[in-house]
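Workshop exercise sheet. Pairs work together: one partner reads the sequence aloud, the other fills in the structure field after running the prediction. Swap roles for the next sheet.
Pair: D.N. / O.F.
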Amino acid sequence: MHRRSSIIGAGTVLGLSLLLGLAISNSASAYHSYLLTVQQLKAGLAKAADRGTSPAAKGFVLIDVRTPEEHASGVIPGTDLNIDYRQIKARHREIGVKLDDHIVVYCQSGHRSNIAAETLADLGYTRVYNVSGSMNAWMEAGYPVDAPRR
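Structure field:
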């Protein structure tokens, strides 16, 4: 089943708003995942930097759902995990969060991360965010790219 992601604006998903300092909405719809812009993610990561780099300190987990080879070429700073989007269903327990914790996913362009976000939502995760444009948009914005953690 295909679902479209709703774009985040001002509204009622207060949890990520407080954690990332973003304005978020959760309209009453069938959408399971939400879109974050790279600007919103960058702002959220900057706010989280004061609290620490662990997912618990940041208030969200950031997952690169690209292949391991793509992941090795560089990541968005603050990336916690690399789980290939094709393995997300089998490996979702590795994320190590509760179903209502915040999960942010990205890939190269946003397509695979949308699939991963929908898969996580289908598994019962309720606060899943896909980075619109993903790594391409991040780099086009001129934001830094880190070497992956080993």
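Discussion prompt: The first strand starts at residue 6 and ends at 7. What would you look at next?
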